[in-house]
Amino acid sequence: MSATYELLLQGGTVVNQDGAGIRDIGISKGRIAAIGQLGSAKAAQTLDLKGLHVLPGVIDTQVHFREPGLEHKEDLASGSRAAVMGGVVGVFEMPNTKPLTTSAETLAAKVKAARNRMFCDFAFYVGGTRDNIADIPKLERLEGSAGIKVFMGSSTGDLLVDDEEHLDRIIGTISRRAAFHAEDEARLKARMHIRRKGDPTSHPEWRDPEAAMLATTQLVRLAEKHRRRVHVLHLSTAEEVIYLKDHKAWASVEVTPHHLTLVGPECYQRLGTFAQMNPPVRDERARAALWAGIADGTVDVLGSDHAPHTAEEKHHTYPDSHSGMTGVQTLVPTMLDHVAKGRLSLSRFVDLTSAGPARLFGLEGKGRIAAGYDADLTIVDLKRTETITNSWIQSKSQWTPYDGVKIQGWPVGTVVRGAMAMWQGQLAASATGVPIRFHEAQ
Ligand code: DOR
């Protein structure tokens, strides 16, 4: 008797731990039931994927969806619509909301608000502060918790731990991998005069490579002392790549598509304050070093650092303009364009966006196209050329630094636990996201 599946994906080129080859995928109860030549199988729904590539679902391990409190920029529904339109099946969301996500109550409120409203699966970082260190063991293990996130230098919002004593206590307390925004607050404060009114090219001069290096080396020193896992978010400097290459035992590394794609001073001349983010997009030397870190494996994951602000907030005169750019919807297309241009392989892209997150964060049943795993898939057309436009952007803030940029490679389908969250640019009728589960949490 032939097998019966709920969804049968036929004839796509599946890219997974087995290499790349034309295979069918049979999906039942939200999981991958079979991979291979499944021509004789029956299915409630069959999709012909000839000519398309099927990748393990892309997980974006750094987004800011702004709910609660900053919903004029984004909310959990709009941010997750942007995610699935861009081929992203799951996100780790950041705690610099209003109120801050720093307690069991604020985390539970986010999880509750996300159910039935988010189109992709989700986890929420809990902000580490001077006041919640004793709660960390509990906060790390709650349902929907992505673990602890610490701002070592101030950025958008009020989260900050900038003294060695409390950082040391936090790192000594964590048991899961914790994520860090590594810029040295004392140096940022001391150099504020370097900012030139109306001139965003002074942004990377103010928040210089030394500010990033000071914080990253302090962080890694404390991680090695306590033998705890730390995750350095949005790496931006050549110096950090060189340093982290020799300090990989306890430190994992994220880079953003922005730091790999944009380059100063050109991006500031072209985009003005719309290119402003923390840590800043830097020069060609920094960008080349990040690509070298992708090539040699120093970099573990890509995160978009989707950090929406309204066009009005971005238009303020520097330095009153807000730091951050949208990115969750453009992660896949911009990186596939880099694949098309030969800067990274498709298998390395998969490693950075699914196997990487699964390896670093211990995801339950995600990050791999294999029997028994969640049927999370990003279906892409590697040949398709498109021009990214602001009108395609689902984020409430409705702009992208890539407006008008022509690229090759496009997400055409987003499958979240067996359900089509997006197919050929059409969004699913209902939002079915659930909390991502971790081996080290509930
Ligand atoms: O540019 C940034 N924007 N960097 C951050 O670390 C925070 C983010 C935001 O939340 O706006």
Query: CATH superfamily of the largest domain, please?
Result: Metal-dependent hydrolases
| Proportion of residues in extended strands | 25-35%
Bound molecules: (4S)-2,6-dioxohexahydropyrimidine-4-carboxylic acid
Tell me the total number of β-strands. Answer: 17
For the largest beta-sheet, the strand count, sense and barrel status come to: 9 strands, mixed
Shape: globular
Give the helix/strand class: alpha/beta
Can you name the CATH architecture of the largest domain?
Alpha-Beta Barrel
Number of helices: 14
CATH fold node name of the largest domain: TIM Barrel
* Percent in helix: 25-40%
The CATH class designation of the largest domain is Alpha Beta
- Overall tally of structural domains: 2
Model description:
The chain is α/β, with parallel strands linked by helices and 442 residues long. The chain has 2 domains: 4-54 and 376-388 and 407-427, Urease, subunit C, domain 1 (Roll); 56-361, TIM Barrel. The chain is built from 14 helices and 17 strands. Strands 1, 2, 3, 4, 5, 14, 15, 16 and 17 form a 9-stranded mixed β-sheet that branches. The longest helix is centred in the middle third of the chain and has 18 residues, at 209-226. The two termini are 39 Å apart. The mean pLDDT is 97. Residues 64, 96, 155-156, 181, 277-278, 307, 323-324 line the site of (4S)-2,6-dioxohexahydropyrimidine-4-carboxylic acid (DOR).
